[in-house]
Structure formats: structure tokens, C-alpha cells
Amino acid sequence: MIGHNYKNLFTATFQYFLINLPSTLSPKSSPRSFGKDFKALYFVTAIANFAIV
Predict the structure, then answer these.
(1) Which of 28, 36, 52, 53 is least surrounded by Cβ atoms within 10 Å, i.e. has the fewest?
(2) How many other β-carbons are positioned within 10 Å of the β-carbon of residue 22?
(3) 37 touches 20 (CB < 8 A)
(4) What distance in Å separates the CA atoms of residue 41 and residue 39, rounded to the nearest whole number?
């Protein structure tokens, strides 16, 4: 079951990168805010995975 959760996390992360790639690569966006977004995504996905199980 835990493998399935990691797959969900990977898929969600990949989709997030795909959707946000243009804004991530823009000169305006700072690595700091990007890291914050990534942590928020990771946290939400982890909670969702635990809720599903």
C-alpha cells in the first residue's frame, strides 16, 4: 500500500511541476518561494495519502 502512496506523490509532484514549469523558470520567481510551494504540495499530498488509506 505504501508503494501506491509514493506513486501518488510522484504523480502529483510531476503534475505540479508540469503545470508550474513556466512560472518556475521565469526570472521573477525566486528559489525560496519555489521551495515553499514544493513543501506545501508535499504536505498536502502526504495528508491526502494518509486520508485515502
Answers:
(1) 28
(2) 9
(3) yes
(4) 5
- Whether this model's pTM surpasses 0.70: no
Q: Determine contact, residues 9/50, Cβ cutoff 8 Å.
A: no
Residue with cell 525566486: 30
Residue 26 neighbours by CB under 8 Å, 6+ apart: none
- As a whole number of angstroms, the distance between CA 44 and CA 30 comes to 22
DSSP 3-state of 29 = coil
- C-alpha cell of 3? 508503494
pLDDT at site 39 = 76
> Which tens digit of pLDDT belongs to each residue from 8-36?
777 877 777 777 666 555 556 555 666 67
In the chain, DSSP finds a helix count (H) and a strand count (E) of 2, 0
